[in-house]
Design a protein that fits this description.
Strand order of the largest sheet: 1-2-3-8-7-6
Pfam families: PilZ
Largest sheet: 6 strands, antiparallel, barrel
CATH architecture of the largest domain: Roll
Helix content: under 10%
Shape: elongated
Strand content: over 45%
CATH topology of the largest domain: Pnp Oxidase, Chain A
Number of helices: 1
CATH class of the largest domain: Mainly Beta
Organism: Roseburia amylophila
Protein name: PilZ domain-containing protein
Order of helices and strands: EEEEEEEEEEEEEEEH
């Protein structure tokens, strides 16, 4: 199936990758014409995002029957005007392929956090490395076995998003970085906000910051 064969009004997701940042944007097919698919323009803070550039990688995702996603990779996308309306125009030479969606993208943070161990109530300063809808990793000191600490609370402030994030979880892996620090990967049990929404918002902020509106 060719991308431009999608029907008017069909919902699509545009997956954008710029270096190590990625984000998904929802849109709707306006119409297809002469090998080009036009979708409703994607905006951030009210401005249409410019997705052109050599470092921008575009894929389009479509749920063919509401269950099985199709993906078109290696697309090019730019803003165009047709009459009085603006659209994002997408060109893709490849056919759509069935796609196994990853459950959770990891978003880099690098923020100061406080780790509170439930069993001892001891607090430790850590660096929250990255986060996804289901997991989090942090950088800590190598003087303890995080895998045996049991449940914990992790709190950090994201000033850019004006949010204080609080979550509970358990450590599932511990890897040494050097003699002064280790990376601890954790499974999140609960959080005070929807982590999937939070990660998606951070990814869109990063895309907009790197590539401009």
């Amino acid at each position: 199936m060719k991308l431009y064969e999608l029907g008017t009004g069909e919902p699509v997701q545009v997956l954008v990758k710029v270096e190590n940042a990625s984000a998904e944007y929802d849109s709707t097919v306006a119409f297809g014409k002469e090998g080009i698919l036009l979708i409703e323009p994607i905006r951030y803070d009210g401005k249409i995002i410019n997705f052109s550039g050599d470092k921008v990688h575009i894929s389009v995702i479509y749920m063919e029957d509401g269950i099985k996603p199709l993906i078109w990779e290696g697309c090019r996308m730019q803003t165009v005007q047709a009459g009085k309306e603006k659209y994002h125009a997408i060109v893709c030479k490849r056919d759509g392929m069935k796609w196994n969606r990853r459950q959770a993208y990891r978003q880099y943070l690098g923020l100061d956090g406080t780790l509170s161990i439930d069993s001892t109530r001891a607090n430790h300063s850590v660096i929250v490395k990255d986060i996804s809808a289901t997991g989090v990793s942090f950088v800590g000191m190598p003087d303890m076995n995080y895998l045996s600490m049991g449940p914990f609370h992790l709190t950090f402030e994201d000033k850019a998003s004006r949010l204080k994030v609080q979550l509970t979880g358990t450590a599932v892996r511990q890897e040494p970085v050097d003699e002064t620090k280790v990376i601890v990967g954790c499974k999140v049990k609960q959080a005070n906000l929807d982590l999937g929404t939070y990660v998606a918002s951070k990814q869109k902020q990063e895309i907009a910051r790197r590539h401009g509106n």
